[in-house]
């Protein structure tokens, strides 16, 4: 017989307890809450709106916990960028680009990514602020350039262009990186009102057509 003073434990209560512990599932849930909070704040005011204390409060984690996962706001926003890249990859898998040529299919991937920036200019501002801002002068002397092809954006475009089984050549990677650089420049120019969205997309698609053709 149940005591009249007993508190009913619901499935939601059990789920909350499971996701607030030390399991890998709980750690993943905290990571996603922090990333989601960063994206929401960025959407409201760009890079400056993403404040660590506010992220921790929204994600319901202690400040010390936040810093165990992400040493800085920059690292959190880079993780948010990777999360959005994963969504782009899923979208490309679900809706394969239908261009008749590899360059058209790659151009479609870059165009979709730009459309995502248009929908959330605040996040676009935050993402490009952490990814493209130069490091403090002289700090580059202490940094080692990355080796290999680990650029998620470029890899997504390559798979869409030639298929997952295609062995991407060094020349093809170089061309894709050049398109990515132009994509970044066009997105920044759009954010700064130096280009309309239509003009930016036209340049992005033309770059893919010319460089990958």
Automatic annotation (TrEMBL):
Residues 51-70 bind DNA. Residues 16-26 have a biased composition (Basic and acidic residues). Pfam families: TetR_C_20, TetR_N. Residues 1-26 are annotated as: Disordered. Transmembrane segments: none annotated. PANTHER family: HTH-TYPE TRANSCRIPTIONAL REGULATOR RUTR, HTH-TYPE TRANSCRIPTIONAL REPRESSOR KSTR. The keyword DNA-binding applies. GO terms for molecular function: DNA-binding transcription factor activity; transcription cis-regulatory region binding. The keyword DNA-binding applies. InterPro entries: Homeodomain-like_sf, HTH-type_TetR-like_transc_reg, HTH_TetR, KstR_C. Residues 28-88 form the HTH tetR-type domain. Keywords: DNA-binding. This is Transcriptional regulator, TetR family.
């Amino acid at each position: 017989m149940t005591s009249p003073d007993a508190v009913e434990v619901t499935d939601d209560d059990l789920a909350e307890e499971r996701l607030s512990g030390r399991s890998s599932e709980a750690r993943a849930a905290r990571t996603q809450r922090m990333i989601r909070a960063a994206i929401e704040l960025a959407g409201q005011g760009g890079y400056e709106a993403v404040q660590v204390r506010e992220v921790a409060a929204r994600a319901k984690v202690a400040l010390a916990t936040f810093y165990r996962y992400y040493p800085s706001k920059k690292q959190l926003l880079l993780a948010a960028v990777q999360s959005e890249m994963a969504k782009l990859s899923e979208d490309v898998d679900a809706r394969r680009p239908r261009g008749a040529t590899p360059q058209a299919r790659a151009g479609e991937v870059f165009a979709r990514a730009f459309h995502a920036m248009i929908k959330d200019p605040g996040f676009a501002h935050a993402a490009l602020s952490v990814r493209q801002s130069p490091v403090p002068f002289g700090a580059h002397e202490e940094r080692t350039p990355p080796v290999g092809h680990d650029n998620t954006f470029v890899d997504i475009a390559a798979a869409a262009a030639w298929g997952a089984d295609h062995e991407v050549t060094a020349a093809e990677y170089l061309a894709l990186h050049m398109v990515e650089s132009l994509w970044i420049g066009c997105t920044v120019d759009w954010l700064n009102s130096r280009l309309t969205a239509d003009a930016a997309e036209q340049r992005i698609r033309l770059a893919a057509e010319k460089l990958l053709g």
